[in-house]
């Protein structure tokens, strides 16, 4: 038997993704596709995934004229060992990996390893040990001192990792020694793999081991001791016959009987026993420390319980639970509205068609903000879970995962797994294992959760499908989770549900073309969409009102505060001032590693580059002309916070942006605080724009809509419209009606106009025509090529070289309607001290071309969401 294997070491080559190995007889019965094995690769041992099992006759042959046809003229190497009896990739995952590798022109091994838990990755290494043929006393006279020392070490330790030599001797000496080892018959140098990266998290815990009679006896003995001590008080005044546990009967001012140390110990041990018995099945076990803390038991007293065989102190593996410590109240299904019920029916009908062997058409669930899409997802999932299926739910960002995870966890307690990049390797690995073992029904997470090994997958739901976070853009493969999900739906014949209040132009166009089934929700649950008022900031200035918060917005904020409701203020830029300018000479403070103005952050009193994170001290004098005319201009969330606090000193503010929420716990905490109404006004960047469902919010203010507009990018209008509509959709979701105020210098801008009417269809129809006229996606395919280098001339040179190559291929392949825009410097041209040049390839279908282009040093984004 032979096996075709994808070796981890082939992650960097497109050619030859599969290598053929011999299957050793002892592995023949156990080996199956999808398993992780160790296999020789060059002189190393590497991990590999079994992709297919082949008959002996199906292996590769050499075209050698001297050999009879079909005979192999070389020996295939055998697989070394099986690393895990359970497959690490399910059949549908392998099929998806093949598609991603093909479509995004990425080595198959790279795609396959992206799908695995990082906890499975092992290092190739070499181990040295003494040869078995070595006779005692048979040393090598001609061996160097180094080698003899090593022989001694090996005799002591049996085997050592070759890497240790480098640590002990330094690289040069180690290299010399390794050369000697190779020629020495007494030392065997074997390739091997390091152990698994993730080890179980061990914790010392106290477990009750005594049972029945023994336990009863022990308890009674102690209880008797306590009773006795209380009945024979030191003070002879204690009345007889009074229950030892009651204080009544002891006259005021009288001291309680003073207990001796033994009795105290017995009392504490009894308390510990009670706690241990109460929590026999608790998944958060007692540790020696917590138990002693809770009962006053000393370490010695606990040890004596152990000696008496009552408890055992042992190390056990503890699950790394990403939800540990979160209390999530259960929720039950809501009575659906007619619209919701109709939508649910269509999803379930698609699932039923899939079960009959059809490929169900993916569903675009277009429901206005607050129309109850989440409830539909939950009920669709419940219905499929009841039929023995499982589901994947994708949410775009970690800020959002918090609320989404809570909603799903509340409905499927204990049956969900979470997958996103902010989990530790250990957490990810354990979640991955729970998923693979079938212990969970629903996987929820960011785009990579799509690659979880879910058995019996029955549905994929992508919430906020328009979000850019679903696209991986700078690392290979530059995949879009939506496209990959659609492919998975086809492979498994399961429904893919794409939900959004503002579908991407691409998706809505596909729905129009009949590629998706369109399901619409037109009404808000128990509420209406909030009216949107546009404030023309030019009029504010004309009226002499220069505050960044217009008079209308101030008025509405005052009303909200008076009524004890909540408001969200949105600004798509953090910091306090977006640039620092000298009024006298025009100097602008730029990052010296990037071509980007520095942003002033008032809290930390620094200037920060938002591209590379570089920090500089605040400026008081112009470094160029030394005048004191340095001024801080522009807006950021910090400035908004400061202004609001000045206007409304009594208001309780909360700022939610990347400066205040640096990790997922911070996101959860901010959300929690605002939901608990610990704050009146939430000020934030686009993190808060999406998906949040906070019924107390009645006012949403967009401080400046202009930042998102006027960006020279094919998708800029879509992004601006989506953002504004989504932010506006956060108001009036509860029982109180809401209001939205958008401040802008461009009140007549099409995006603002349509967003203010929540009119997706008008926006879409106009945007589609722009895209058609200028041949933008979805009417043309784009591929963006980026080259970065410290030298500008090198970028320019490489860009021209690639341009010539591509032009030639376009001519050779006769690809009409395909052309190159650029090359040109990217915007900004320099980031982290590297210049960047770009080129945009566009045409009806670029795949033939992408496969032949040879540009290993270029970053290639296939179907980029931004042409910039
Ligand atoms: N059938 C129902 N009966 C009562 N309340 C409901 C029902 N369906 C949903 N809701 C409530 O309506 C509110 C809005 O629902 P949800 O957050 O799911 O909307 P959405 O469509 O996902 O909105 P968005 O696109 O803005 O994220 C939630 O508080 C939800 O609990
Ligand atoms: Zn920078």
UniProtKB/TrEMBL annotation:
<dbReference type="GO" id="GO:0016887">
    <property type="term" value="F:ATP hydrolysis activity"/>
</dbReference>
<protein>
    <recommendedName>
        <fullName>Replication restart protein PriA</fullName>
        <ecNumber>5.6.2.4</ecNumber>
    </recommendedName>
</protein>
<keyword id="KW-0378">Hydrolase</keyword>
<keyword id="KW-0067">ATP-binding</keyword>
<comment type="similarity">
    <text>Belongs to the helicase family. PriA subfamily.</text>
</comment>
<feature type="domain" description="Helicase ATP-binding">
    <location>
        <begin position="354"/>
        <end position="521"/>
    </location>
</feature>
<dbReference type="Pfam" id="PF18074">
    <property type="entry name" value="PriA_C"/>
</dbReference>
<dbReference type="InterPro" id="IPR011545">
    <property type="entry name" value="DEAD/DEAH_box_helicase_dom"/>
</dbReference>
<dbReference type="Pfam" id="PF17764">
    <property type="entry name" value="PriA_3primeBD"/>
</dbReference>
<feature type="binding site">
    <location>
        <position position="591"/>
    </location>
    <ligand>
        <name>Zn(2+) 2</name>
    </ligand>
</feature>
<keyword id="KW-0235">DNA replication</keyword>
<dbReference type="GO" id="GO:0006270">
    <property type="term" value="P:DNA replication initiation"/>
</dbReference>
<dbReference type="Pfam" id="PF00271">
    <property type="entry name" value="Helicase_C"/>
</dbReference>
<dbReference type="GO" id="GO:0008270">
    <property type="term" value="F:zinc ion binding"/>
</dbReference>
<keyword id="KW-0862">Zinc</keyword>
<feature type="domain" description="Helicase C-terminal">
    <location>
        <begin position="617"/>
        <end position="771"/>
    </location>
</feature>
<comment type="subunit">
    <text>Component of the replication restart primosome.</text>
</comment>
<dbReference type="InterPro" id="IPR027417">
    <property type="entry name" value="P-loop_NTPase"/>
</dbReference>
<feature type="binding site">
    <location>
        <position position="612"/>
    </location>
    <ligand>
        <name>Zn(2+) 2</name>
    </ligand>
</feature>
<dbReference type="GO" id="GO:1990077">
    <property type="term" value="C:primosome complex"/>
</dbReference>
<feature type="binding site">
    <location>
        <position position="625"/>
    </location>
    <ligand>
        <name>Zn(2+) 1</name>
    </ligand>
</feature>
<keyword id="KW-0547">Nucleotide-binding</keyword>
<keyword id="KW-0238">DNA-binding</keyword>
<dbReference type="InterPro" id="IPR041236">
    <property type="entry name" value="PriA_C"/>
</dbReference>
<dbReference type="GO" id="GO:0005524">
    <property type="term" value="F:ATP binding"/>
</dbReference>
<keyword id="KW-0413">Isomerase</keyword>
<feature type="binding site">
    <location>
        <position position="585"/>
    </location>
    <ligand>
        <name>Zn(2+) 1</name>
    </ligand>
</feature>
<dbReference type="InterPro" id="IPR042115">
    <property type="entry name" value="PriA_3primeBD_sf"/>
</dbReference>
<dbReference type="InterPro" id="IPR041222">
    <property type="entry name" value="PriA_3primeBD"/>
</dbReference>
<dbReference type="InterPro" id="IPR001650">
    <property type="entry name" value="Helicase_C-like"/>
</dbReference>
<dbReference type="GO" id="GO:0006310">
    <property type="term" value="P:DNA recombination"/>
</dbReference>
<dbReference type="GO" id="GO:0043138">
    <property type="term" value="F:3'-5' DNA helicase activity"/>
</dbReference>
<dbReference type="GO" id="GO:0006302">
    <property type="term" value="P:double-strand break repair"/>
</dbReference>
<keyword id="KW-0639">Primosome</keyword>
<dbReference type="Pfam" id="PF00270">
    <property type="entry name" value="DEAD"/>
</dbReference>
<dbReference type="InterPro" id="IPR014001">
    <property type="entry name" value="Helicase_ATP-bd"/>
</dbReference>
<dbReference type="InterPro" id="IPR040498">
    <property type="entry name" value="PriA_CRR"/>
</dbReference>
<keyword id="KW-0479">Metal-binding</keyword>
<feature type="binding site">
    <location>
        <position position="582"/>
    </location>
    <ligand>
        <name>Zn(2+) 1</name>
    </ligand>
</feature>
<dbReference type="GO" id="GO:0006269">
    <property type="term" value="P:DNA replication, synthesis of primer"/>
</dbReference>
<feature type="binding site">
    <location>
        <position position="594"/>
    </location>
    <ligand>
        <name>Zn(2+) 2</name>
    </ligand>
</feature>
<feature type="binding site">
    <location>
        <position position="609"/>
    </location>
    <ligand>
        <name>Zn(2+) 2</name>
    </ligand>
</feature>
């Amino acid at each position: 038997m032979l096996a075709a294997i994808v070796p981890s070491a082939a992650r960097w080559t497109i050619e030859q993704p599969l290598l053929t190995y011999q299957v050793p007889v002892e592995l023949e019965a156990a080996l199956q596709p999808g398993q992780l094995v160790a296999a020789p690769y060059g002189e190393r041992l590497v991990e590999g995934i079994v992709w297919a099992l082949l008959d002996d006759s199906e292996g590769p042959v050499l075209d050698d004229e001297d050999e009879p046809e079909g005979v192999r003229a070389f020996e295939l190497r055998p697989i070394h060992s099986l690393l895990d009896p359970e497959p690490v990739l399910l059949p549908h995952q392998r099929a998806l990996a093949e598609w991603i590798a093909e479509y995004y022109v990425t080595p198959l091994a790279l795609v396959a390893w992206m799908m695995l838990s990082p906890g499975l990755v092992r290092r190739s290494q070499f181990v040295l040990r003494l040869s078995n043929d070595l006779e005692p006393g048979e040393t090598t006279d001609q061996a160097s001192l180094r080698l003899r020392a090593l022989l001694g070490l090996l005799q002591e330790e049996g085997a050592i990792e070759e890497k240790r030599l480098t640590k002990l001797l330094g690289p040069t000496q180690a290299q010399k020694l390794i050369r000697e080892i190779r020629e020495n018959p007494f030392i065997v140098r074997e390739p091997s793999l390091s152990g698994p990266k993730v080890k179980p998290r061990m914790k010392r815990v106290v477990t009750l081991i005594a049972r029945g009679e023994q336990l009863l006896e022990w308890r009674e003995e102690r209880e008797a001791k306590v009773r006795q001590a209380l009945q024979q008080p030191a003070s002879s005044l204690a009345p007889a016959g009074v229950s030892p546990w009651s204080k009544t009967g002891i006259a005021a001012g009288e001291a309680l009987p003073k207990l001796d140390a033994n009795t105290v110990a017995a009392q504490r041990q009894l308390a510990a026993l009670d706690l241990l018995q109460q929590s026999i099945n608790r998944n958060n076990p007692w540790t020696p420390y917590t138990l002693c803390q809770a009962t006053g038991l000393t370490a010695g007293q606990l040890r004596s319980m152990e000696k008496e065989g009552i408890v055992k102190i042992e190390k056990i593996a503890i699950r790394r639970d990403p939800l540990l410590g979160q209390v999530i109240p259960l929720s039950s299904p809501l009575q659906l509205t007619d619209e919701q019920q109709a939508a649910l029916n269509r999803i379930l009908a698609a699932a039923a068609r899939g079960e009959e062997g059809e490929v169900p058409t993916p569903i675009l669930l277009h429901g206005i903000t607050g129309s109850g899409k989440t409830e539909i997802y939950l009920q669709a999932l419940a219905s499929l879970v009841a039929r023995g299926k499982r589901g994947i739910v994708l949410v775009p960002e970690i800020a959002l995962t918090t609320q989404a995870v809570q909603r799903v966890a509340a409905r499927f307690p204990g049956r969900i797994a979470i997958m996103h990049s902010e989990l530790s390797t250990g957490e990810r690995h354990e979640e991955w294992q729970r998923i693979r073992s079938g212990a969970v029904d629903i996987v929820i997470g960011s785009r990579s959760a799509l690659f979880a090994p879910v058995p019996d997958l029955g549905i994929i739901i992508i919430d906020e499908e328009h979000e850019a976070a679903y696209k991986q853009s700078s690392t290979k493969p530059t995949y879009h989770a939506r496209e990959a999900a659609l492919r998975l739906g086809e492979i498994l014949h399961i429904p893919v549900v794409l939900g959004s209040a503002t579908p991407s132009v691409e998706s809505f166009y596909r729905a129009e073309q009949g590629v998706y089934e369109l399901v619409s929700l037109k009404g808000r649950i128990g509420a209406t969409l909030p009216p949107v008022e546009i404030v023309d900031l030019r009029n504010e200035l004309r009226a002499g009102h220069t505050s960044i918060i217009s008079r209308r917005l101030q008025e509405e904020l005052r009303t909200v505060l008076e009524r004890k409701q909540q408001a969200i203020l949105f600004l798509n830029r953090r910091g306090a001032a977006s640039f620092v300018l000298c009024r006298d000479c025009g100097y602008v403070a730029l990052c010296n590693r990037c071509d980007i103005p520095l942003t002033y952050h008032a809290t930390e009193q620094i200037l920060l580059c938002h591209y590379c994170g570089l920090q500089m001290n605040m400026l008081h004098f112009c470094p160029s002309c030394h005048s004191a005319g340095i001024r801080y201009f522009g807006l950021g969330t910090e400035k908004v916070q400061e202004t609001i606090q000045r206007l409304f000193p009594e208001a309780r503010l909360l700022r939610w942006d990347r400066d205040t929420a640096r990790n997922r716990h911070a996101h959860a905490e901010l959300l929690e605080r605002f939901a608990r109404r610990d704050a009146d006004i939430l000020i934030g960047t686009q993190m808060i724009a999406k998906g949040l469902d906070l019924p107390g919010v009645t006012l949403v203010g967009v401080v400046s809509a202009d930042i998102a507009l006027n960006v020279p990018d094919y998708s800029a209008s879509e992004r601006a419209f989506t953002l504004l509509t989504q932010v506006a959709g956060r108001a009036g979701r509860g029982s109180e009606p809401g209001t939205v105020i958008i401040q802008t210098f461009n009140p007549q801008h099409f995006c603002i106009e349509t967003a203010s009417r929540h009119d997706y269809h008008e926006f879409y129809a106009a945007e589609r025509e722009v895209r058609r006229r200028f041949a933008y996606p979805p009417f043309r395919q784009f591929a963006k090529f980026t080259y970065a280098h410290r030298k500008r001339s090198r970028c320019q040179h490489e860009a021209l070289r690639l341009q010539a190559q591509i032009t030639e291929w376009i001519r050779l392949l006769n690809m009409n309607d395909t052309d190159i825009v650029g090359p040109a410097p990217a915007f900004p041209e320099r980031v982290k001290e590297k210049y960047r040049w770009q080129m945009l390839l566009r045409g009806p279908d670029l795949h033939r071309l992408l496969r032949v282009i040879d540009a290993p040093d270029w970053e290639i984004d296939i179907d980029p969401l931004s042409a910039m």
